[in-house]
Amino acid sequence: MIEFIKGFIDYVTPEYIVIDHHGLGYKVHTPNPFIYNKSANEEVIIYTYQHVREDLIALYGFQTREEKALFMKLLNVTGIGPKGALAILASGNPKQVIEAIEEENDTFLVKFPGVGKKTARQIILDLKGKLGDIAALYAPDLFTHEKIEKEETDNLALLEAVEALKVLGYAEREINKVLPTLKQESLSTDQYVKKALQKLLK
Q: Where does the signal peptide begin and end (predicted)?
């Protein structure tokens, strides 16, 4: 795994840049290639993510470790690959993306290339409450101590509710169907169980 590359910008295209590192040129896909000035003749550091599949090895690069971390979080969302994650970062700054996820603003997320209503909801479902380490830099006001404490309490209540449903005889497959709805609310354990039963008994 290549953590970062330090070198000079040799070539810039709309999709990628080429970094000259001691005479070796690395092709790196970045969200906004033209922010790198080839003529400045200044050494730059690009934080990289190496994507490997059977027919391809590609490097994706970012200005900060936090931007790279957000890219990797987006890759964990069902239906989003490297190109999709890169397009999201290219179209909106990290603070906007994080705020949209935490505030469940799917209207903002669908503005990104390749992101429809279903994918936007999946991004929120998979990442809400899990970006605190990245948001510390880009949107620190979203993750105050009180909010983190509240989210931890909500998560505990939801976990307890899931266990209670299992005791009542519901299979994990059935519980998973109502989980997305439950995660959208802040309830006590009993309230989660009651709401889940309403959904399951329909």
A: none
Domain with 19, as residue range(s), is 4-62
Q: What is the rounded CA–CA span in Å between residue 124 and residue 15?
A: 27
Q: Long-range CB contacts (< 8 A, 24+ apart) of 64-71?
A: 64/137, 66/94, 66/134, 66/137, 66/138, 67/31, 67/94, 69/133, 69/134, 70/94, 70/97, 70/98, 70/131, 70/134
CATH number at residue 84: 1.10.150.20
Q: CA 50, CA 70: separation in Å to the nearest integer?
A: 15
pLDDT, tens digit, 9 for 90 and up, residues 125-162: 999 888 877 765 565 555 444 454 555 456 678 888 88
Q: Rounded to two decimals, what is the model's pTM?
A: 0.65
Q: Are 5 and 48 in contact (CB under 8 A)?
A: yes
